[in-house]
Amino acid sequence: MKAVVYHGPRDVRVEDVPDPKIEKPTDAIVRITSTNICGSDLHMYEGRTDFEPGRVFGHENVGEVVEVGNAVEKVKVGDMISAPFNVSCGHCSNCERGLTNYCERANSPGIAGAAYGFADMGPWQGGQAEYLRVPWADFDALRLPEDARERQNDYVMLSDIFPTGWHATEMAGLSPGETCVIYGGGPVGLMAALSATLKSASQVFVVDRHPDRLKLAEEIGAIPIDRSQGDPVQQVKDRTNGIGADCGCECVGYQAHDQEGNEDNSATLNALVQSVKFTGRIGTVGVFIPQDPGAPNDLAKQGKAAFDVGWHWFKGQSMGHGQCPVKRYNRYLRSLIHEGKCKPSWIVSHELPLEQAAEGYKNFDARERGWTKVVLKPQMKAA
Amino acid sequence: MKAVVYHGPRDVRVEDVPDPKIEKPTDAIVRITSTNICGSDLHMYEGRTDFEPGRVFGHENVGEVVEVGNAVEKVKVGDMISAPFNVSCGHCSNCERGLTNYCERANSPGIAGAAYGFADMGPWQGGQAEYLRVPWADFDALRLPEDARERQNDYVMLSDIFPTGWHATEMAGLSPGETCVIYGGGPVGLMAALSATLKSASQVFVVDRHPDRLKLAEEIGAIPIDRSQGDPVQQVKDRTNGIGADCGCECVGYQAHDQEGNEDNSATLNALVQSVKFTGRIGTVGVFIPQDPGAPNDLAKQGKAAFDVGWHWFKGQSMGHGQCPVKRYNRYLRSLIHEGKCKPSWIVSHELPLEQAAEGYKNFDARERGWTKVVLKPQMKAA
Amino acid sequence: MKAVVYHGPRDVRVEDVPDPKIEKPTDAIVRITSTNICGSDLHMYEGRTDFEPGRVFGHENVGEVVEVGNAVEKVKVGDMISAPFNVSCGHCSNCERGLTNYCERANSPGIAGAAYGFADMGPWQGGQAEYLRVPWADFDALRLPEDARERQNDYVMLSDIFPTGWHATEMAGLSPGETCVIYGGGPVGLMAALSATLKSASQVFVVDRHPDRLKLAEEIGAIPIDRSQGDPVQQVKDRTNGIGADCGCECVGYQAHDQEGNEDNSATLNALVQSVKFTGRIGTVGVFIPQDPGAPNDLAKQGKAAFDVGWHWFKGQSMGHGQCPVKRYNRYLRSLIHEGKCKPSWIVSHELPLEQAAEGYKNFDARERGWTKVVLKPQMKAA
Amino acid sequence: MKAVVYHGPRDVRVEDVPDPKIEKPTDAIVRITSTNICGSDLHMYEGRTDFEPGRVFGHENVGEVVEVGNAVEKVKVGDMISAPFNVSCGHCSNCERGLTNYCERANSPGIAGAAYGFADMGPWQGGQAEYLRVPWADFDALRLPEDARERQNDYVMLSDIFPTGWHATEMAGLSPGETCVIYGGGPVGLMAALSATLKSASQVFVVDRHPDRLKLAEEIGAIPIDRSQGDPVQQVKDRTNGIGADCGCECVGYQAHDQEGNEDNSATLNALVQSVKFTGRIGTVGVFIPQDPGAPNDLAKQGKAAFDVGWHWFKGQSMGHGQCPVKRYNRYLRSLIHEGKCKPSWIVSHELPLEQAAEGYKNFDARERGWTKVVLKPQMKAA
């Protein structure tokens, strides 16, 4: 089958690889119909984190089941399914409490958490391909309603970024009527904004410097904070009686930049500490990593940041970190899509056939204006 | 009246100061019967944080009401009461949600949170004195049962360290049957250990290097981890199948030291990130401060720490910070004391008359062996 | 001043009564600008519950502060405020935990919970009058933004029915993406529907038989279930794959009727048990009372109902009951109104000058078509 | 193999039945080493609920894995395991949220929840036998530490009554320092008392009339309330300043009796409404059933009860109902047993070989003094 194969920094190619097979009785094989390029793919694409050449990318996948193992009893051939990016066994001590983001069995011993096509997240092949093997299929696959065939660009968001944005607002403890500031207006930040809106935040601020992203935020009723126009902390305070927002979301990660444009992995964290009020809560879904050899300073190389713990503590704030447990939310977000309560596809700028994946990666990575989200379509003919 | 007055680094004197008066109709005046020296008093005593010479220390107070303002309707003259260290108005947006630790009215505008006799925590006189003015008395004072007169060393812990230790375990999300590691075996750490025991943790680890503290931990069923015997992270992992504890408490604060004995404000935070498992939660009640001019390095001088956000994020952990909302817990802990379910006085090493306060400060600050907790007794005659 | 005085069943008159005065230093006096007739006023109006002749109705009040006691420090003369229907002291063990609906000091000893102008809810005069005394004003009064003068019909809902409807969905444990069925499309039921919509329920069902109410439900995106067209349980199951709704709200109370139109205090409770799925949650804000001498059968006269505990238990459901703690929600709902996220005034059918209160009571009690909610305006001139 | 077979009311016999076999790749076969007689077995034993003659009893099981299907990857042959009484698939919408008590796949369509050897709870054979088939073994079986072989009478409580008692206190929302009243001092009520003690309730009241049960309650520090000595409601109020307990647990079920000794399915529910304070919470784990043809009155025959909803609502209480999700708790309670924090075996009065099951049933059903809990031992030789 065709798949998007990594060959080294900024070099991905669509090539023939072996078809996936049923390896265990709990597996399913899925024909991919839509698969997104994710911002976290870019860390690997840029060579900033270790991804082995020859591996296949892709953890935002939707498709149709074409084969199941003999222990699979719920998912059927012909079902349209969403595959959460987290690979999870369903019966370890974390999975049984809903912490499928930190499954104890799907990665190496001692490392919790796994994903398709991801550095350090286990051996699982990615889904930017014609077919994908989904392990523990009854637990991992979410069946979709019939309209999934027509509204794929909405449902494809269920495997990662819509739940991930939602999770940011959950870790931030956002309640209806509160205000929320979101650093980062990329796809995840925009999904956090959509989530905050669905939760009836009274005001949702999205901080970014790219006009196309700020415009998308505004389209769903969020308040754009253009950091190219001045210190975002002050802009947020100006709109919240000087108090700061009730809570905040970090949707940028370790490659954050300070106001002067220098990479600084503490920039958004510390800006959030200042932007969020006393007693405020912060949810961090932007990726931070234990080692970062390509970082601009020694602290960051060790995965550490010059974090403003003094103010954070003095203000009595709390922070939650890490990957999203997609299964905790995807069933409910599926219902919101199905009942027409939201359209997360509003951020999609490009649909490309799988063959044009390299073009998608290149433009998305360069943050070319208007390339806000790319969906690859393995069954689409190349132009 | 007599009171413990600060005169500069390591210089406290018992002197005559004016008696407190009813200033507002919601005030009460309390005759102090027991008042502790707290570890956080030592930051000021050492001159590390700014405490204005001439001010009176003391935020762990118990006593008898001797006068009330004309708007006080619940608390009566003659009541024994516990005064939470947090001064709080009861009707701001934080107080009404139980966030009395970050009252918006009891400190300067823009700063939430206040306390008796504390640097940067509002103008309130401390209670290491014969009398104390308690504002918003109906809201702030907790009435005590009759046995409070006999069991003062238990009930005096209700104003700060017992609830503060409890709060550490709350922010750490400790559930019955889980394991908990506590960094710091001082009074607050020991109260966190007592709290974890009362909550039926399956194992409670207390990390310290002082034998008297480790012995007190062991007396209530906790497992002492002597860091002078080697890396505490490894010791905790060795006792938890290599996984780490389910949750952890930081009870040391910004003057933490690394294994080599050098001051390092990131030492316990980063050790906790390593000591606590994937998905683990951490509660930080040890004090961190926004500026620390006396710190050993530039980062710390700005209140920042070289925090291991890479591992913290990768492990999907969360952390809560800040002062304890004493009122959230003190009513319940009062019942546990009254019904004989716990005796937090087990850590008290010394009862001193107020006149000997300077001796108490000196020895407690020096961590003299056996000086684990000092209670001052304004009505006791000096020896 | 003028006030709406109860004289016996179905007899209310606007009469002169003494002006309220500052009685305690924590009081405020408020000039009422809008005050609603509530469905729960009708229980008293009909003589079904004991309301002493001579007392003044009115617990849904908004107005401007005209005088404050000398212990009031937050609320100022000139502030527009919303007075929650619950009278609450702010410092008893319930109030301090946010259970202002069951204040231990504002009613008789042994009875928790109080309200303005209400049978069995303490001595407090109602606000269907020109002026109202608000006790514990700093705690009880919620200050409103300036637009409150123009948008009174929205903000007046904050004192009771909007938070009460919200509370129903809270007790029902409604999460985004879930389905919710609401029995009763009166003002409270409609506010529950608005709340469920704001919380992003995937489907909200409102069960009633009055077309005007069902139409209002539909206007905010809820799904009307017309029980005059057949068994509502079956209608709900038909729209939820036979499973039932995830959760439900009881917004009718003890004067419920069965499908045949006979009064039966178990009717809606048991219909909810059937309409809600296994593991479903139910919030009951419709009023039930300990004694009901006017009830049609002996069980109901004792305040008991033939409750289907067998199915309720077998299905593993839970239920929360009782009055709403308005303060838990009103600050947040105020923000939603202020930011234009909702307009709870959409149910208002009639604005009447205070003098026409009797007409308002008569028509609202008779459920005259189109009389969905009546707001009295003490400053409006009679037509 | 030998098994305890039901032949009709009060007629159980130990007989040869076919050995269980691996039927699906996710199954395991367990050699039973300890299996309890449960109070809920008695409903079937007495013929009060429908249990088909020929079926095998037993849902409180512990044993050793002797065979696994080819999709079982976590549980190994030789593991000692506890099998929760709930049979659950692990991947339906309820199981994935931890609601394994209401699995949607393990019973008939439309009925959620299943158990071994139980009327109306699916087709699953019971474990009062030499062997048991455990479906979905990786999800359903909890592996036990090595000391489980020696301390079986502790660990056997993990399959039902210890978690069930714990669940009662969870649904009752018991927090440390609160008071809790438990109606019913049978095995489940005693486990609720043990749970409340482990959660540091300040006072735990156990209401019963059997001296042996009251004595067991007292042994763990609970306060026995002997209802043969007078109205238990009054006794509880006398010990709680007239206010009532903070929360309560119903551990009796539909065969409750009133003070006069007449069966009345509303007796304990209504006594709890009175025994628990305003705002109190109640957890009901005693079994109630949708139809009860053997009940003493028409209401009860329909599964309904004359419930005091008037007081329940007026007091603002809440109630949770239904079976326990054992998996939510068993891992944590296992740790408490393993670390020596509790010994739930303290209630065991009799160990019998499987062959003497009939004697166990007869005496336990008759509430013979001293027959508080019976553990059957399939590997024990008959006396």
From TrEMBL, chains A, B, C, D:
Keyword Transmembrane: no
Domain Alcohol dehydrogenase-like N-terminal: 25-138
Short name of one Pfam family: ADH_N
Cofactor: Zn(2+)
GO terms for MF: oxidoreductase activity; zinc ion binding
Keywords: Metal-binding, NAD, Oxidoreductase, Zinc
Ranges of residues in domain Alcohol dehydrogenase-like C-terminal: 187-291
Record Gene3D superfamilies: Medium-chain alcohol dehydrogenases, catalytic domain, NAD(P)-binding Rossmann-like Domain
Keyword Cell cycle carried by entry: no
Membrane-crossing segments per the record: none
Highest taxon of source: Bacteria
InterPro entries registered for this protein in UniProt: ADH-like_C, ADH-like_N, ADH_Zn_CS, GroES-like_sf, NAD(P)-bd_dom_sf
Family note: Belongs to the zinc-containing alcohol dehydrogenase family.
Protein name: Alcohol dehydrogenase catalytic domain-containing protein
